[in-house]
């Protein structure tokens, strides 16, 4: 989300100039120099409203076939990210009869998505600035008897970095900034530019067939709603404080579904009936919140404390502690205001209230069942990545408890088994689990079978997240075996073997007193026999360190499970480089049903599943 000011200076505000006006001034100066050999400085242009401001040149470059001029943008008192940027126009001769053509130079973007005033593939120079520059060229061409066939390249050094602070990446404008302006004038602290960007976001979403968009009050709620619904960046509208500007445009240009997401304070103001949520133009009414607390059955003391609260979040904290669904009620009232503003245009509305960390506190709309949980059967790198991708959503990661200090994960973490398939099925039903992702180790066949059966019994959709297995390449000396018993037998007599098979698989190797073993485990423990030496380590592992470990211990063979993934793969590269054979235990058969190979693919499946109605993950309705 971009920033906008909370306070307006208490003095007369100075107007500024758009990038379109600056580009037009630079174009006029550069073309004049191409025709006469001299740069007019200052250079005067005519704006669409008839004004004729003069601009000082900050940069000039005179050449026989191309001339360039630069103007520093002055946005006045508007907090514009392009204030102070150098806008350069380079004007060169074009092919006869081609008229004026435009190119994007350094720091000026290119349009890649439908729905904007400029078609895909064109420089992001909007229609009014194009017209202003073309008119400036036509006037000079007529005065000097020139054909006016020119190529105008507009550039803004550093514009690509500045563009990251704007809506351009989301609108499909890549590589830099847009050359904007309809009047040529920047009005300080005007809401129009912000609302105009919301409108363009809606246009782009509609043009790209997106049927569910989300308007958020800030970046935390935006990220949370994107995770919750799996929305693309094109579906995210930078609503900010301008709920009214978004809703009124959607009334004329509807989409099927709209989610409004924000913090409790902002959405409380919307629930009161405000459509401009800026702190300078609307305030949280604590008497109104006190009345809502009374409506929910709060005690007289709590109602009175609400009336004298300092912040809306203070009220929410006390409501949650008292078990009162105040956030749901606020979401419901805000939804009613939104629907009233949309006036039956056909757009369905959902309102989500998030706390400052992005956790869902209240919701209304779209459906009538309470939120369900996602259960991740974890213990792998992919499971942790998946949990982090679902931060702020109701997610539980279940770990077997085989390591003493598992890494910290977002959401709830449970340790230990479920009691077989029947116990897991009961857990799914008792905890309203909406979907299960089995992201256990590829060799954890028992829990995968139990998950398959439990989900069948409970009617819960399940996905197996199975990382791709390793494949032998040129130079690898693999001996593939079907199970651990065969791996024990395959170790040559007199070998110095490096075991990376997990602590539970070390016992069978103790019987091989004709070989020496170095075994890597996560947690320190007693070795099962004198011929097995333990080292501790947790991936991801470094190639140089793996190479050193194998060489320093004189390893002659590596024994590994085909776990796949990048965290422990360096040992295989080190073995190949050192010419050491690898006894590779093949994986058990993968579980039946849908599978994904990465956490990203699993997230996509989860969001499709939750949106399809196959789960109970929907918002409480009104």
Short description:
The chain has 622 residues and is α/β, with parallel strands linked by helices. The relative contact order is 0.08.
Describe the model:
- There is one protein chain.
- The chain is an alpha/beta fold.
- Helices cover 33% and strands 20% of the residues.
- The chain contains 19 helices and 28 strands.
- Helix 8 (264-271) crosses helix 12 (326-342).
- The longest helix is centred in the first third of the chain and has 18 residues, at 19-36.
- It is flat and about 100 Å long.
- The chain starts with 15 loop residues before the first strand and ends in an 11-residue tail after the last helix.
- Residues 1-10 and 612-622 have low confidence and may be disordered.
How are the SSEs ordered, and which strands pair?
Blueprint: E1 16-17, H1 19-36, E2 43-44, E3 54-55, E4 59-61, E5 66-72, E6 86-93, E7 100-104, E8 110-111, H2 127-144, E9 150-155, H3 159-163, H4 168-171, E10 173-174, E11 185-186, H5 192-207, E12 212-216, H6 219-229, E13 236-237, H7 243-252, E14 257-263, H8 264-271, H9 286-295, H10 300-307, H11 312-321, H12 326-342, E15 348-354, E16 360-365, E17 373-377, H13 381-389, E18 395-399, E19 412-415, H14 420-430, E20 433-438, H15 445-458, E21 462-465, E22 478-481, H16 484-490, E23 496-500, E24 516-521, E25 532-536, H17 543-552, E26 557-561, H18 570-578, E27 582-585, E28 595-596, H19 599-611
Parallel strand pairs: 7-9, 12-13, 12-14, 14-15, 17-18, 17-20, 18-19, 20-21, 21-28, 22-27, 23-24, 23-26, 24-25, 26-27
Antiparallel strand pairs: 1-11, 2-3, 4-5, 5-6, 6-9, 8-10, 15-16
Helix pairs in contact: 1-2, 5-7, 8-12, 9-10, 13-19, 14-15, 17-18
């Amino acid at each position: 989300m971009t920033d906008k000011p909370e306070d307006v200076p208490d003095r007369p505000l100075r107007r500024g100039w758009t990038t379109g006006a600056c580009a037009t001034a630079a174009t006029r100066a550069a073309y004049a120099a191409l025709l006469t050999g001299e740069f007019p400085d200052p250079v005067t242009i005519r704006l669409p409203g008839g004004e004729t401001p003069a601009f000082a040149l900050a940069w000039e470059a005179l050449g026989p076939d191309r001339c360039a001029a630069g103007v520093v943008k002055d946005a006045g008192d508007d907090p514009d990210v392009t204030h102070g940027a150098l806008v350069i126009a380079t004007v060169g001769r074009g092919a006869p009869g081609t008229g004026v053509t435009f190119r994007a130079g350094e720091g000026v973007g290119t349009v890649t998505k439908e729905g904007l005033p400029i078609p895909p593939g064109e420089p992001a120079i909007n229609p009014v600035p194009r017209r202003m520059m073309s008119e400036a060229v036509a006037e000079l061409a007529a005065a000097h008897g020139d054909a006016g066939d020119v190529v105008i390249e507009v550039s803004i050094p550093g514009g690509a970095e500045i563009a990251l602070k704007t809506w351009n990446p989301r609108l499909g404008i890549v590589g830099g900034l847009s050359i904007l302006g309809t009047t040529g004038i920047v009005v300080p602290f005007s809401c129009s530019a912000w609302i105009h960007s919301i409108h363009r976001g809606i246009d782009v979403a509609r043009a790209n067939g997106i049927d569910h968009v989300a308007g958020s009050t800030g970046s935390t709620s935006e990220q949370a709603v994107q995770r919750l619904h799996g929305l693309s960046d094109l579906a995210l509208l930078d609503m900010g404080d301008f709920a009214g500007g978004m809703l009124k445009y959607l009334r004329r240009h509807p989409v099927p579904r709209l989610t409004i997401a924000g913090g409790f304070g902002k959405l409380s103001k919307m629930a009161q009936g405000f459509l401009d949520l800026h702190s300078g133009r609307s305030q949280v009414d604590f008497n109104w919140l006190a009345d809502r607390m009374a409506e929910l059955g709060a005690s007289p003391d709590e109602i009175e404390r609400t009336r004298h609260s300092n912040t809306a979040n203070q009220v929410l904290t006390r409501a949650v502690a008292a078990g009162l669904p105040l956030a749901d009620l606020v979401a419901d009232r805000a939804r009613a205001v939104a629907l009233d503003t949309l006036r039956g245009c056909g757009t369905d509305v959902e309102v989500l209230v998030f706390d400052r960390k992005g956790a869902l506190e209240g919701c209304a709309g779209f459906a009538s069942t309470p939120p369900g949980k996602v259960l991740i059967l974890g213990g792998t790198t992919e499971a942790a990545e998946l949990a982090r991708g679902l931060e702020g959503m109701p997610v539980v990661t279940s770990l077997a408890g085989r390591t003493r200090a598992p890494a910290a994960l977002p959401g709830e973490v449970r340790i230990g088994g479920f009691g077989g398939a029947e116990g897991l099925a009961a857990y799914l039903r008792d905890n309203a689990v909406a979907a299960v992702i089995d992201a256990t180790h590829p060799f954890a066949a028992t829990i995968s079978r139990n998950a398959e059966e439990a989900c069948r019994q409970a009617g819960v959709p399940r996905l197996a997240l199975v990382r791709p297995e390793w494949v032998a390449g040129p130079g690898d000396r693999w001996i593939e075996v079907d199970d651990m018993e065969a791996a024990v037998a395959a170790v040559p007599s007199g070998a110095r073997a490096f075991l990376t098979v997990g602590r539970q698989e070390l016992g069978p190797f103790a019987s091989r007193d004709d070989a020496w073993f170095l075994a890597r485990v996560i947690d320190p423990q007693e070795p099962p026999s004198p011929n097995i030496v333990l080292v501790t380590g947790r991936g991801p592992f470094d190639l140089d360190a793996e190479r050193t470990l194998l060489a320093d211990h004189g390893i002659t063979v590596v024994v590994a499970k085909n776990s796949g993934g990048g965290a422990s793969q360096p040992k295989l590269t080190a073995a190949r480089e050192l010419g050491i054979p690898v006894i590779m235990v093949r994986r058990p058969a993968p579980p039946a049903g849908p599978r994904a190979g990465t956490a990203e693919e699993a997230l996509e499946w989860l969001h499709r599943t939750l949106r399809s109605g196959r789960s109970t993950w929907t918002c409480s309705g009104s």
